[in-house]
Amino acid sequence: MSLSRPALAVVMAAAVTFHAAVLAAPLEPTPSPTLPAATQSSAAVVAQVSFANQDDLNRMAGDLDIWQVDHGTRRATMLLMPAQVQRLRAEGRTVTVDVQATARLAAWPVQAAAQPAEGGIPSFPCYRTVEETYATLAQLAVDHPDLVQPVTIGQSWQSVTTSGGAGYPIEGVVLTSQALPGPKPVFFLMAAIHARELTTAEAATRFAEQLVQGYGVDADATWLLDHTAIHIAPQTNPDGRKKAESGLFWRKNINDSQSCFFDPNGVGIDLNRNSSFRWNQCTGFGCSSSDACSLTYRGPSAASEPEVQAVEAYMRAIFADQRGPLDSDTAPADASGVMVSLHSYAPLILYPWGWTQAPAPNADGLRTLGRKFGFYTGYDV
Ligand SMILES: [Zn+2]
User: Fold this and answer.
1) Ligand 1 centroid, distance to 79 Cα (angstroms)
2) Which residues have their alpha-adjacent CB atom under 5 A from ion ligand 1?
């Protein structure tokens, strides 16, 4: 696909490992699991940090919010809290604070900016809001009923817990040519499960537009819609996204049933740590946190959040479970289906497992698919 190319982290899981696809999307690089969001945005610095090799970088990626990697100089740009700077320097690494980038970060939040007249998010007019994203999906379905079916995947936490119309549905579309009957292999693209990763929802929405507008014109788009069913959910954390659209550096959902007394903006559950598969079983740096104010708070129980429940149920409905019950069970060679979760903005392709360093079944196939994605995007695999 030839999207205009914001740097994303593509977390992918082929449905050849269905459990992985539904339940164990790998964890993308994260900020420190012990720090609340507001603290991060106000005290963090942007810095270049040295690393020895790919393995060393991978170890850091589990714990740190890596933004960019330069393999030539072996320097990674990342967001760091002062304690992390100290720790990395104590490990013997070179840590160079980028003063200008840190100053730009300090200028966040940007809620003083007005809603752009032409639409979009304040200060980011190229990125559609939740409402504008949903309007685009609805209009695509109206304009192309032969190619686009609207689907409501579920509801946000606020929608489930609050009366009076607050909160949001999780809307999506299914793209396929109705003229050619299925069954067809399924691709599921989800985005913006981390609210502040603004570009991911826009990339997913533009992908939908590109496919539909390219049908009958572009050979690749035509083939894809003729022979696959493409499910796209651009806004899988709409409550959190609205916080981010207001200028807050918001990552989690907005479940405030556990409060953060010192930081009202620190509440919420990291939906990317709340999946039912191996919940709270990941070990090592940056897996998840039991601290409700942490950026990687896993939630009180497995799949406790309505957004996660919705996505898991939806994926169970669209993908056949093609593996046995054990983690070690491989999928058959003719298994089909792929899911991708878009994150921003470490340019990385991550594939299962996420909860353990051990290779997943079908690891060779997953790695090969990941390398193909990496070839087209230029991202590290
Ligand atoms: Zn993310």
Assistant:
1) 14
2) 28, 194, 197, 343
Fill in the amino acid letter for 120.
G
DSSP output for 278-333? TTTT--STTS-BS-TTSTTB--SSTT-SHHHHHHHHHHHHHS---S-SSTTPPPPT
Mark 28-63 as b/e (b = at least 16 C-beta within 10 Å).
bbbbbbebbbbbbbeebbbbbbbbeeeeebebbbbb
Q: Which tens digits make up the pLDDT trace of 132-150? A: 999 999 999 999 999 999 9
| Six-digit token string for 21 | 């696809």
Under CATH, which number does the domain 9-29+128-377 receive? 3.40.630.10
* Contact of 12 with 24, CB cutoff 8 Å: no
Token pair recorded at residue 304: 């406790």
Contact 274, 305 (CB under 8 A): yes
124 SS3 class: strand
Distance CA 46, CA 167 (A): 33
Pairing of strands 338-343, 186-191: parallel
- CA pair distance 217, 248, nearest whole angstrom: 41
C-alpha 197 – ligand 1 centre gap (Å)? 6
Bigger pLDDT: 107 vs 45: 45
Backbone angles phi, psi at 322, to 5 degrees: -105, 5
pLDDT tens-digit readout, 282-291: 876 567 889 8
Measure 50 CA to ligand 1 centroid, in angstroms: 23
Kindly give the distance from the C-alpha atom of residue 256 to the centroid of ligand 1, in angstroms, as a whole number.
Answer: 20
User: 59-63, 135-139, 255-259, 359-363: lowest mean pLDDT where?
Assistant: 59-63
> What's the rounded mean pLDDT across residues 18-25?
32
ipTM over 0.90: yes
The first and second tokens of residue 375, run together, are 């070839």
Q: Can you list the alpha helix ranges (DSSP code H) found in the chain?
A: 18-23, 37-43, 54-61, 82-90, 99-106, 130-143, 157-161, 198-214, 219-227, 238-245, 306-318, 363-377
Report the separation in Å between the CA atom of 191 and the middle of ligand 1, taken as the mean of its atom positions. Answer: 9
Which amino acid would we find at residue 152?
A: T
User: pLDDT at position 16, please?
Assistant: 32
